[in-house]
Write a structure and sequence with these properties.
The complex is a heterodimer.
Chain A lengths: L20 H21 L8 E4 L5 E4 L6 E3 L2 H9 L6 E3 L24 H5 L5 E5 L2 H12 L4 E4 L6 H13 L2 H18 L12 E8 L2 E4 L4 H8 L3 E2 L8 E3 L2 H7 L3 E5 L16 H4 L3 E4 L11 H18 L1
Parallel strand pairs in A: 3-4, 3-5, 5-6, 7-9, 7-11, 11-12
Antiparallel strand pairs in A: 1-2, 7-8, 8-10
Helix pairs in contact in A: 5-6, 6-10
Chain B lengths: L1 H20 L7 H9 L6 H32 L12 H14 L7 H20 L9 H25 L2 H12 L7 H20 L1 H7 L3 H6 L4 H23 L5 H13 L3 H25 L8 H21 L1
Helix pairs in contact in B: 1-3, 1-13, 2-3, 3-8, 3-11, 3-12, 3-13, 4-5, 4-6, 4-7, 4-11, 5-6, 5-11, 8-11, 12-13, 12-14, 13-14
The chains are: A alpha/beta, B mainly alpha.
Chain lengths: 319, 323
Amino acid sequence: MACSAPSGAAVRPSSPPEDGRLSLRRSWIFTFLLLGTLSACGHPAASGTISLVDDAGDTVRLSHPAERVVSLIPATTELLFAIGAGPEVVGRTRFDDWPPSAASVPSVGDGLEPSVEAILSRRPDLVVLYRGAGTADAVARLHALGVPTLVVRTDRLADVPRIARLLGTATGHATGADSVAARFTRALDSVSVEPSAPPALRPSVLLLAWDDPPLTIGAGSFLDELVARAGGRNVFHDIAAASAPVSLEAIVARDPDVVLTFGADSSTLATRPEWRTVRAVRLGHFVVVHGSEFSQPSPRSPQAVAELRQALLRWERSR
Amino acid sequence: MMRRWLPLVVVAVIAALAGLAFGAVRLSPGEVLRALFDASAASAPIVRDLRAPRVVLGFLIGGSLAVCGAALQALVRNPLADPYLLGLSGGAGLGAVIAIAAGATGAWSVPVAAFIGTVAAVALVYRLGLAAGGRIDTRALLLAGVVVSGFAGAIMTAIIVLSPAEQLRDAFLWLLGGLGRASWRSVAVMAAYAVLPLLLLARRARDLDLLSLGEESAGHLGADVEPVKRQVVVATALLTAAAVAVSGMIGFVGLVVPHIVRLARGPLHRGLLPAAFILGGAMLVLSDVLARTVLAPVELPVGVVTALVGVPLFAILLRRSLA
């Protein structure tokens, strides 16, 4: 069949995000080409449906690659742009800040407690939502209205290539998704410290999300993975949740080598007597990392691992 | 006299010892004792800088909230009254959330903002509760508390919904409250604010007895009703503001403890206020021990424990007193 490839996989180049304006224009051209093909065909649905299973266990069926995607997770917005589906993103959450060009996409508000009306106003043919209690109601209502949804979890590093491919299939950017996924896996492997290094040789790290009351990161977060791959050892790896409030005394008991904070200035901790019971605080062993590559699992996670590795090495040298 | 106070003292001592003995770090009783008497002992920082301020702060806050509850229940002659019903927590929460949303998350700015918020809420509630002739209408005061609470809550929710993700998280964490940030400095802050209002309320014990009979009878029996009411409002506002500012929202201590004490020892405030202070303090310290050990290393918000422990206890006593 002449019109059998509306997925566009063959005609779309994988456009790396750093290509900037050129790739954007190019993918626009290809979008027009694709639209032309579709309208010439007349009945795109006839070319076969896209079918995939999302993280809620639902089978998602699309008659054609999604062209108007509302993405309600910052991580999926970033992924959509990375795989070259940026032009198809017509809605995002108010928290999506990467890539910078995502800012020009209209916001539909909150992603975890989404507004169905705001979503519908963007006339989507696919809505990507986080799998959680807050979105279940919106998913049910969108289904009732006949709007396809893709419900995913984006908590771990392994989710990045997996979700990239799901989104690639759904939007007809399978090639772009494959190349993002392959690049991600390769880059992550090349920056990661050998997991065979004995745990005793790795600096133990307290991931401090908030100090008052102390809130730490557990094994449920990708940040725990970042630290392990950067050669550190999360002292609260035994906490299964993504984050949890812990007592200062528990921190003293775990006796981390380094206190790691994200953007926050931690040096004032050393002036507080109750925090000075923590050896690393007393000795001023702080590592601060900045940047939104630490706020969600993404194609930039290998870069985050490398930055973290550098920070830990700098700390070890300065000791 | 001894027989009346002994059980309370025993409970308080048990709470204090439990607060010093238990925690995420396993210490033997011998090590705890050594740390108390020898500043150079290995376990000294944990016992002296982490557990001891937590116990003292728990006592001060639990005691203050319970005394506030007892005084407010007498003032408005309503068994439901507690520091939270009268809009104080709403004001404190709003102040804190505004500070956090504005990016002022330093160790001092949030408590200070919470304090300002509480005082503002109390001033508003007090003003709304003034009837003609500058008299405080206790029914109006209660209603004013409820509406100011609701109003502050609505603004708080709006700010939280409209602020960026990070500040949102900070605000929620602050509202969870707890004694996790206890230090000798927070003990000093709490003590500085609590001592005078507590003494003032203790001096007004007899007037509170009269007030709980009704204002008219109180007047006939020689109480100078209006100044007393004003002093009680200001004192309880200061106490709650300091407690909320230092430890966030901790519910049920102020409501439940005065009732428990009244059921056990009768309604006279000369005994009720100190007993409520001791029992409230002990209850919060014990709740905090549970909060930080049950799921260790994860900490529960202490308000969750005070509700889980306080409410069934209250229900049992209530049934007994009705039987």
